[in-house]
Every structure is written in C-alpha cells, then in structure tokens.
# Entry
Amino acid sequence: DIVMTQSPDSLAVSLGERATFNCKSSQSVLYSSNNKNYLAWYQQKPGQPPKLLIYWASIRESGVPDRFSGSGSGTDFTLTINSLQAEDVAVYYCQQYYTTPYTFGQGTKLEIK
Amino acid sequence: QVQLVQSGAEVKKPGASVEVSCKASGYTFASSGISWVRQAPGQGLEWMGWITPYNGNTHYDQKFQGRVTMTTDTSTSTAYMELRSLRSDDTAVYYCARSSLRFYSDSSGYYSFYWFFDYWGRGTLVTVSS
# Structure
C-alpha cells in the first residue's frame, strides 16, 4: 500500500498569513504515460464530510477560492493557503488515487493563532 | 444540484450486519463511480472500495474482502454498502463519495474513473456495541 504522511500534524497560523501543508507518499504517484500526479487534497470541517479542494496535485476544484493552491510532483506535495481566513479552520487531508487501496494522509489540523 | 443522501444512524451488536444506503440526485447516476470511505471517531479517512453503477463492477480493499458488498440500484439511483461480521472497531462514520471524471480504458474495454471524490454524502454513523 502507498503510505501518505502529512506534516505537521497541527498548524497554527495568524489570520491573513500563509498556511503550508506537506504530504509525502511512500512511492511516486506520478503516472509517466500522462505526466499526471494522482494526488488530491480535501478540507474537513467538524461534523462535515470532506470537501474536495485540489486534484491532479494542482488543479483547483470549481468554486474553491484561489487562495488555495497545490504543488509538487512524484512523492512530495504541498497545499498552500494564502491570506488565511477564519473559515479555513479545518483538518486537511491528502489522498493518492494512483493505485488501490486509495489512501489518505493522517490529516493536518489548522487552527488560528 | 448534486446530492448524496445517506440513510440514518445504526446501532448493531458484534457479529451482526449493517447496510447503508446512498441516494444520488442531480446528476446521471450511471455516469459516475461511487466509493465508500469510513472514518472512525477522531480518526482519519479510510477507503473501503468502489462500484461503477453502469456495469456493477466493484473493487474492494483487501482489508474488507469477504465482509463487504457494494451494490447499486440504477432504477432508484441508490448505492448500498453492506458490512458483515461487525466488530467494535467497525464503529465509524461511513461516507459515500462520487467520482465523476472518467476515461475509456482500451485494455479493459470499460469506462473507468479517476478515484478522487468531488461530492460526499453527509455520512452514516454505525455504532457496534454489545
């Protein structure tokens, strides 16, 4: 199985500042035939289901604010939130869909400093 | 708008079975895939398997092989997940989630999906307790 490891486990950032989340996969999720990284990011607020933010490592889902961005390739990925808003408090998960079983990171909890 | 409406909370005894339903609306049910993902209390997300409603193909995580069955009823646009031989560590919120980005696979001769999840149900809490 591909193990997804996120860091840090928790993060406290001031409003208006930048939040950076890291995700590392135990093997590459870059598919060479189409040059796509099979990596998605989700946001989960308390008592709610996850919400898709980013897929193909860097493509923002429709309706997601442009302060959210994804980057990285191969085994190392980053989710960045620019100009943090209060409503961004949540747990953030990465997920690989390169191969089954599709696996998620353990999550990074974002709080306001 | 796309909605996935799940059945209500369940309380089961160890060894019993549970079936969770997920009724889809707002899109063509057969043109998307459905996965089931669970989340134990205070824990992360765990993918269980997928089903493609248009042909009924399934793929389960080996961890659940023999205990889980995923089905769909295209006449009612509803997906079902049955989990048998329940244990206390099966206590979790069970989500259905949609995958809509698909491609045609020449090798299999079927449509397949990119298994990231653009819509989720609100979850069904299954509690296993004696």
Observations:
- Chain A has a mean pLDDT of 97.
- The two ends of chain A are 36 Å apart (CA to CA).
